[in-house]
């Protein structure tokens, strides 16, 4: 097996996508928007974090595993760890994770949104991460069950990046920085900023709340409610990576008629689950 850094190229991005599809047992993505979003994520991280992005190849040069890690100020995050089925259990995942974790040197905190896979959970625990069980909520939004927001939440954009970075630093010890630019390519962002606090929520075109951060539960509830109410009536919504600390989000989701199920683990090192906060699996 050969481990090499992922290059900022379409070919390497496609190799990573093929590995992820095989590892997670999903058919090749047919939706062009999802394909573009995945490809852009790989190339974005290959540029911002070249020492954290690794591809594993077998002796014939075929890609069999991939890892994407980022470092944002004091926080390290793992965006992806995937190994094709034929190479699982042979040390490929452990080798990739060691390279990715080596990139965390000098940071104080670490975060991973992990799928409910026992092998991955063992790897992360052995690497020193605490495993916090997480939940997901899905379903069509029942607008009638939602209480109207208690204050303004406006459509945001690049002009609010300083505010968003400030909220990031307070909650997770590091700003998302350039990741906001990438998120804004694929999502709308709702922003709130008044005497009750500050925060933001990204919502993609499939109704998934991709990332939410706020300085108070009151603002978090306002943002999540506003995000759900902004969706077309009866449209699907998804909330993911809810730990026990995010009961405020659980209450909003239940009021909106969303169904609750288990969703893997939020893996943390050097920190407690940030709250109020719903992480992005891609950008943490």
From TrEMBL:
Enzyme class, first EC level, given as a word: transferase
Transferase listed as a keyword: yes
N-acetyltransferase domain residues: 1-149
UniProt GO molecular function: acyltransferase activity
Pfam families: Acetyltransf_1
Domain of life: Bacteria
Entry keyword set: Acyltransferase, Transferase
Annotated protein name in UniProt: GNAT family N-acetyltransferase
């Amino acid at each position: 097996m050969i481990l090499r850094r992922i290059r900022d190229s379409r070919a390497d991005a496609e190799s990573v996508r093929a590995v992820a599809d095989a590892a997670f047992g999903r058919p090749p993505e047919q939706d062009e928007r999802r394909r573009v979003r995945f490809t852009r994520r790989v190339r974005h991280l290959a540029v911002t974090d070249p020492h954290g992005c690794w591809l594993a190849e077998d002796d014939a040069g075929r890609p069999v595993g991939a890892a994407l890690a980022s470092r944002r100020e004091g926080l390290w995050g793992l965006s992806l760890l995937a190994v094709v089925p034929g190479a699982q259990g042979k040390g490929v995942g452990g080798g990739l994770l060691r390279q990715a974790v080596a990139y965390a040197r000098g940071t104080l905190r670490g975060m991973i949104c992990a799928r409910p896979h026992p092998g991955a959970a063992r790897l992360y625990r052995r690497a020193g991460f605490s495993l916090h069980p997480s939940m997901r909520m899905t379903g069509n939004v029942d607008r009638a069950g939602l209480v109207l927001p208690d204050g303004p939440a406006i459509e945001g954009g690049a002009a609010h990046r300083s505010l968003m970075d400030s909220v990031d630093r307070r909650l997770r010890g590091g700003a998302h920085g350039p990741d906001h630019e990438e998120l804004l390519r694929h999502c709308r962002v709702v922003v709130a900023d008044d005497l009750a606090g500050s925060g933001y929520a990204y919502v993609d075109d499939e109704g998934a709340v991709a990332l939410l951060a706020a300085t108070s539960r009151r603002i978090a509830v306002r943002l999540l409610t506003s995000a759900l109410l902004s969706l077309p009536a009866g449209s699907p919504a998804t909330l993911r990576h809810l730990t026990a600390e995010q009961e405020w989000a659980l209450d909003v989701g239940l009021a909106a008629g969303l169904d609750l199920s288990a969703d893997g683990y939020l893996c943390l090192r050097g920190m407690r689950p940030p709250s109020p906060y719903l992480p992005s699996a891609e950008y943490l």
